[in-house]
Amino acid sequence: MHQEIKPSILYYGTPVILLTTLNEDGSTNISPLSSSWALGYSLVLGLGIGGKAIENLRERPECVVNVPGPELWTQVEALAPLTGKNPVPEYKLQASFRFEHDKFAAANFTRQTSVQVKPDRILECPLQIECAVRNIRVPEHDPHFAVVEAEALKVHADEKIVLGDNRIDPEQWSPLIYNFRHYFGLGQPLGKTFRA
Ligand SMILES: Cc1cc2nc3c(=O)[nH]c(=O)nc-3n(C[C@H](O)[C@H](O)[C@H](O)COP(=O)(O)O)c2cc1C
């Protein structure tokens, strides 16, 4: 039997990404997100319109999608109550968010210069995708979120997870999963698709 419900959140278990964007003073902001997907070299991100990330992307349309592994979850969580917005918007104040300009220091992450875009990468993330923003759309049915379409320009992978020249080894790589506001790693491998 299924039950019809109206959950307050619909985070049904997607990888966490740490989106780096460029602040007006040339420094890099970090925003944890779980709403993203990639198909070919097209990426789509779901961003709350009250945050610093979307403000930065509208002004300076480039970013890095840094993908952490499960061992980084406490550092990701150290970023969770922070925003790069100053002053902090009222709705974020009510949810106990506070302003932080230097999120690298706040979460003990290391800056790494990017190759094709201005925002820095996060050294500790085994996968880093430098992107150019190609389109930003606010859906009519929900004006609180923006749908950001980006093009992957350059992919950096830790050599430990690279198989051959241009493949990621799924035995070595695993994402950090955000499952209804709880962090999970992957379980045991189940099998592979006919195209693997
Ligand atoms: C694991 C995790 C996943 C999140 N996923 C999203 C998301 O997909 N989209 C979003 O807008 N905010 C998401 N958030 C909330 C933002 O990280 C939060 O609004 C943060 O203040 C954004 O920082 P900024 O204002 O400096 O951009 C998530 C937070 C965490 C901890």
Automatic annotation (TrEMBL):
<comment type="similarity">
    <text>Belongs to the flavoredoxin family.</text>
</comment>
<feature type="domain" description="Flavin reductase like">
    <location>
        <begin position="12"/>
        <end position="186"/>
    </location>
</feature>
<dbReference type="InterPro" id="IPR002563">
    <property type="entry name" value="Flavin_Rdtase-like_dom"/>
</dbReference>
<keyword id="KW-0560">Oxidoreductase</keyword>
<protein>
    <submittedName>
        <fullName>Flavin reductase family protein</fullName>
        <ecNumber>1.5.1.-</ecNumber>
    </submittedName>
</protein>
<dbReference type="InterPro" id="IPR012349">
    <property type="entry name" value="Split_barrel_FMN-bd"/>
</dbReference>
<dbReference type="GO" id="GO:0016491">
    <property type="term" value="F:oxidoreductase activity"/>
</dbReference>
<dbReference type="Pfam" id="PF01613">
    <property type="entry name" value="Flavin_Reduct"/>
</dbReference>
<keyword id="KW-0285">Flavoprotein</keyword>
<dbReference type="InterPro" id="IPR052174">
    <property type="entry name" value="Flavoredoxin"/>
</dbReference>
